[in-house]
Write a structure and sequence with these properties.
GO terms for molecular function: FMN binding; oxidoreductase activity. This is NAD(P)H-dependent oxidoreductase. The chain is 34% helix and 16% strand. By secondary structure, it is α/β, with parallel strands linked by helices. It has a 5-stranded parallel β-sheet, sandwiched between helices. The longest helix is centred in the C-terminal third of the chain and has 19 residues. It starts with a strand and ends with a helix.
């Protein structure tokens, strides 16, 4: 039996590095995990006034998370934090109060940047947001991918050899993290 993992690509850009990294993770995942990469373009803005009759897109996103066995966030860094679209998705999924769709789900975080810092501030932002609304966050290996600008070919395939063992180690560790918390 494989655990179903939702991988959230935290950028809307069609050719985003986060989406390419998420897809690369799906290809590298061991047989114990089945990764579904999710993009956030269809999730409307959170507005507490709509909670009495939530929009269909909120309900579909929440249900996908609730049916999963874990979540991996793959995020770029925008202005020293996560993109607004990712924060919005987290707000949508964490409501209504006390019924977060992330509750009990083992969580992984990968940040990335074409620059030298690897989006570390975005990862730290998620580490501040998720406690209290999510399950256990994988602590090691911390993965902040820098210089990802040349990591993929035109078709989105991972071609930067130095990145493959990093992503493989990450997804193998995440598989153990999920098994530990569902075992």
């Amino acid at each position: 039996m494989a655990y179903n993992i939702v991988v959230i690509a935290g950028s809307l850009r069609k050719d985003s590095f986060s989406l390419k990294i998420a897809n690369a993770l799906a290809k590298l995942a061991p047989g114990s995990l089945k990764l579904e990469v999710v993009t956030l373009g269809g999730i409307s803005f959170f507005n507490q006034d709509l909670e009495g009759a939530p929009p269909a897109d909120w309900l579909a996103f929440r249900e996908k998370l609730q049916k999963s066995d874990g979540v991996i966030f793959v995020t770029p860094e925008y202005n020293r934090a996560i993109p607004g679209v990712l924060k919005n998705a987290i707000d949508v999924a964490s409501r209504p109060y006390g019924k977060s769709s992330f509750n009990g789900k083992p969580v992984g975080i990968i940040s990335n940047s074409p620059g030298p810092l690897g989006g570390v501030s975005a990862a730290k932002t998620l580490q501040n947001i998720l406690p209290g609304i999510a399950g256990p966050i994988m602590q090691q290996p911390e993965t902040y991918l820098n210089a990802v600008g040349d990591a993929f070919d035109a078709e989105g395939n991972l071609v930067k050899e130095s990145l493959k063992p990093v992503l493989q180690a990450y997804i193998d560790a995440f598989a153990a993290h999920v098994a530990k918390h569902h075992g």
